[in-house]
Amino acid sequence: MTVHSPTTPPFRDPHLPFAKRIDDLLARLTLDEKVSFLHQYAPAVERLGIAAFRTGQEALHGVAWMGPATVFPQAVGLGATWNPDLVRRIGEAVSKEARAMRARDDRVGLNVWSPTVNLLRHPLWGRNEEGYSEDPKLTSAIATAYTQGLRGDHPTYWRTAPVLKHWLAHNNETDRATSSASVRPRVLHEYDLRAFKKTVEAGAVAGVMPAYNLVNGRPNHLSPYLRTHLRAWTDQDLLVCSDAGAPTNLVDAEHYFDTHEEATAAALLAGVDSFTDHGTDAAQITARVKGALEQDLLAEADIDTAVRRHLSVRFRLGEFDPHYDPHRGTGEFDTPAHRALAQEAAEQAVVLLKNDDDLLPLAPDTRLAVVGLLADECKLDWYSGSLLHRSTPLEGLYDRFGAERVDFAEGVDRIRLRTPSGAFLHVPPTDAPDEARGTEAALDPALLSGRTDLPPLTTDPTGTEFALADWGEGILTLRSPDGRYLSVAEDGYVRASADQPGGWVAQETFRLETHQNGHLLKHLGTGRHICVAADGVKVAEAGDFFEVITMERGEEAVARAAAEADVVLVVAGNDPHINGRETEDRTTLSLPAHQQRLLRAARAANARTALILVSAYPYAVDVSRLPAVLWTAHGGQAAGSALARVLAGDVSPAGRLPQTWYESDADLPELLDYDVIGARQTYLYFEGTPLFPFGHGLSYASFSYADVSARAADTAVHVSCTITNTGDRPAAEVAQLYTRAADPSVTRPRRELLDHRRVTLSPGERAELAFEVPLPAFGFWDVRQGRWRLENGPYDLLLGASSEDIRLHTTLILDGEPPAPRAVTRRGLEAADFDEQSGIAIVDRTKTAGDAVTPTEGGSAELVYRSCDFGNGVSEVTAQLAGEGVLELSLDGGPALAELTLHTPTADAYAYTTLAADLATKGLHDVHLRLRGPLRLAHVGFSG
Fold it and tell me: pLDDT tens digits, residue range 133-184?
């Protein structure tokens, strides 16, 4: 029995279980104190000696927004490594740096909002850089590894507490706060939920963050799946943290509720425990919660439930046991081991897409031309920390091959801007030290462009020659000769002040608008135009006209450098703060026109031209005349040195594509079409020919696959094979195991990743690989029965180097359940459980649970339900309907046999009424339902 000191409350006793300590602490808190804990910035409770606590610390690929830290490759680059062990070690390093940074700055949080496990379903998603893969199995494997590293391996105390983003089915920035993803049950269970499930079950997840968007007409912050799925996967307390501003969106943007009290209560009851809203000002959220309590929309027990989850995280982080917390003294920050790990990760993230005629690796005496807008850049993104170290491709190649063997041409256009008076825009000299930005700017990316200590641009007779880069769709950056980007601060003046484009709204982007008298220069951050005033160049509603004097075209410099080289390396890609990022989706897969011109100029001057894409997402590029193509995500602090080592052959590339690269925009579905099955999306269902398939990646070595063996046991399928390095150098291979149902009763994936192994072999070395795949991995969500089902029959097992490069093939007969018809006389038809549809959107049946369907934009739509068993016969059909319109029923594609009409609109979209009609049928049929008008259908029943 534990004996408590009279002055030590039980919640301070480290020998008691956390649950008992939380019970004790909850009992000591007043209602007002408990309510205050529901905001992101929970205040201190001084009378109990409890410190303030902030949920949320970004740590997607290193500690972000808190100043210098080790910067690892972007998440999509970590996905390209296909290496969970590496990613786990990165998670460990990131969490150790978070602890070390917190020791000197208590603003650094330990509740980390990472990783992002949203699937990379659509390559135009602006936040593609934040996810790991389009495949749920690979995503879950990488995410699990990262969370395990972030958590640490102590059985009781966590180094950091990871929160997964973003629950659920979130893949668009366009209208992200108001758009609804229509997710049919099979896609929900087989695709979107799977990315979260295994990671949560692994036990290193502290919570999740709901996404901004709606799913099936219901905001994610009210998702019933938080209760029915997420919290059913684990017996640990999970903290659900809202996304920033999303609670207010429930009323202001989404108009889902009339009052904020209703909205806040509904979110809390759905399972949201921490409200991220109104920045550090908790007053509005706490007032809403108190208002909901006064209106009996909430009970104190509901508050207790949320606060318990909040406290559970804080206890696990060791806050209340400082003398027992094994991580409290962690001081590992920017260590040699962390720098080496960043280098290793950047090397493993490089994917060799094409290598004809063995152009790569480069011979030591090769004379190189390194060209392109990304050639001398080490770009950061919104979720990066500040660089402690920096390596660009050019710097890496200088170090590896010698500066005397490398010629550089950035490929920017060199221009001057002349005013109608004949003067030119001019960057005045300055003696202001670079450190003048101060500590706050180093801590906040949004302040990088905010310098006001430098003089604004002026005009003079000769002007400044600017480097103009067009990043696509006419979005320009302008850079002065000293390397500073033109930027606009809050005072509206234009200065050469920014190291890079950045901030929540980039202030370094412009557009030239053609007019008869020249060009207007529009500043995109403010939407205003540039004008010349007596006190300097500034933005204004009415801008001045400028004549653009082109001193040199970028392709001219590229062509000169390319003509003198043995090999040309064109480094192209994106700036993560421009054209595709949080709040902004891309509009095309195409490489920006400026960079296409540079590539054409290099290739015309020298056939031995390799394209190196450094980007956060795939491109559609004509590679037919290029002998070599590589891709890497923005690789963090070691990006350039890693790329140089791969190009030189010091490291054989072994990265693999984590998502499909399509040939053109025509291969893509609509951005908001979340039905991966019906729209044939991702490698799972895509029936076209990709530019490069999922899992693709070449090596400088070669590997043979042999000796495939497969057998089914009671709970798992066991598969093995041997792989031999038949090349002349050590290299890593990523062996990929896929399956496909050979004779399915419903649409199944063309192939589906079951497992993979990354193995490094010396020349001639052989390894035996063994895979154990649980039998449920071969199942699918059977909408006819509303559950998972393993179907009996043949399953192909495919082993190879990518989803399309299959080297070994065998087939197993698995014992499962035979297909069964829909028992419609017993269960009826849930409207969303269709097999096929056209023109349908899935919507919320009620505001708290369930799905219904409705025609998109109030038109007409059709649903098909296959294999419906009417038994010995029925005589009546009933339908739960809301809104107004007509429902027609036919069988097997024949004429309409029943018609149900809502002539008078129901009171609202959730006021369902049941209509009935005669229907005489028996036996097995396909049911076709046609909906016309703004009609909601929830359920169809049959009786007789």
Answer: 999 999 999 999 999 999 999 999 999 999 999 999 999 999 999 999 999 9
In this prediction, residues 7-22 reach a mean pLDDT of: 96
Helix (H, G, I), strand (E, B) or coil at 379: coil
Domain boundaries, the chain: 346-411+554-667, 420-543, 701-814, 822-943
| Active-site residue list | 243
pTM confidence score:
0.96
Please identify, in words, the CATH class of the domain defined by 420-543: mainly beta
CATH topology of domain 346-411+554-667: Rossmann fold (3.40.50)
| Spatial CA neighbour of 247 closest among 278, 207, 225, 216 | 278
3-state secondary structure of 544: coil
Return the residue matching tokens 């063309």. Answer: 750
pLDDT greater than 80 at residue 852: yes
pLDDT of residue 441 exceeding 50: no
The rounded distance, in Å, linking the Cα atoms of 316 and 237 is 11
In sequence order, what are the beta bridge partners of 773?
717
E strands, 466-544, in order:
466-470, 476-479, 485-488, 494-498, 510-515, 518-523, 528-533, 536-540
- In this structure, is the dihedral angle defined by the CA atoms of residues 669, 672, 677 and 682, taken in order, positive or negative? positive
Q: Are 682 and 690 in contact (CB under 8 A)?
A: no
Helix-helix angle 283-294:300-316, to 10 degrees:
140
Write down the CATH number for the domain with range 822-943. 2.60.120.260
CATH number of 701-814: 2.60.40.10
Question: Do the first three CATH levels of 420-543 and 701-814 match, i.e. the same topology?
Answer: no
Q: How far apart are CA 765 and CA 777, in angstroms?
A: 31
Q: Which of 7, 10, 125 is nearest to 75 (CA)?
A: 125
